[in-house]
Amino acid sequence: MAKVNYKRSIWLVIVIALVMTTLYIKFFQDSNEQIPPKHNLEKTGAGAVIDFTDATKKIHIAVDSVLAKNGFSVGETKEITKEVPRKNIEGTIRWHTRQLLITVPAEASAESIKEIFKSAVHNADGQVFSSQPDTYQGVAVVRIDIGLKDQLAKEDVTIISDRVYLTQGKPISPKTANKIDTKYDGSIKGKIAIIIDDFGYNKESIAAFAALNRPITFAVIPYRPFSNEAAAIGLSSGNQVILHLPMEPLSQSAQSEELMVAVNMSDEEIQNMVKQAIQSVPGIIGVNNHQGSRATADRRVMKDVLAVLKENHLFFVDSRTNSQSIAAEIARQMGIKTGENELFLDNTDEVGAVKAKLRTAQEMAIKHGTVTVIGHARMNTAIAVKEMIPEFESQGIHLVFVSQFLQ
């Protein structure tokens, strides 16, 4: 009898061990099951594209549900698909992003609206990153940044899917928000379009140009530390934004950008580089060249570049870094709206020297009716333009966007 009980005990132990093993394996598998990725993987010849488009559109739906449920008035909506190079690895990251201008009741607090968004986007694997004071077309607003975070290998990725601008009470009218308060009487004697190149390298000059409250065309260089911030502030302050496309200069020693359109590239390489640069800067309506004294004199290269611009309905302004440039000529032949730089303002980075150039521009505008000039995103240039505005307007000179001069 004792022997039978012993055998039963052995079998009982074995059964319990099997059950425990099965439960352990199931628990281990469940605990180590990978969280579904927030991105899709698209393999290309130039490395993989990590595509967050579906994830960001899921967050868009959550944001839209908040707007609909609360009856918030939606004004302007700007959206774009962005694609930027990855850090330290071949390939790109792609996502869809939006800017929304919404009007909320005067009694609603920004903090309470932020909490509503936070709850809604959490269910879409999103999060609210911040809410802070900002301006939109010169009007004070609160900006709420919404998006997602992910990790690719050892690379932390933060994606902004929705940038929501809150205004309280009466909706902002884009037309009236962009209106320039002119300070002079009588007829306009001339118009100056000021393009400011190289936004993206530094932060301090962005706010200085945005605060001028006059039309400035922001030319933003891609892939720099403050490129997206410059584009966002340029747009929110009511200005126009264009891409400042890096192109190969005659002198290799003068080359300032590693990623640029070069004459030794194939047609496909040139077009892909231009497409990626366009997608990397939100809200652009045109392009001008950064450097490019060699590239803008090459017919094949310019045809490749301009084909992409035409496909994306973007205008082109030739910075004229080389008197032998054929860029504007080819652009017009291809039916692309085109303009040309006529004067560089700040080869000397001194307020007095820049003001002297601006007075030359004033004389050119009075003589010819219009003039397009280029300066750079420097504090001395911003100071010079600010100090010249009263003089311009007392002389009947009107600042306008370069888009008004295109042919």
Automatic annotation (TrEMBL):
Residue stretches spanning the membrane: 9-28
Keyword Transmembrane helix: yes
Pfam families assigned to the protein according to its UniProt record, in alphabetical order: Polysacc_deac_2
SUPFAM superfamilies: Glycoside hydrolase/deacetylase
Keywords of this entry: Membrane, Transmembrane, Transmembrane helix
UniProt name for this protein: Divergent polysaccharide deacetylase family protein
Organism: Pelosinus baikalensis
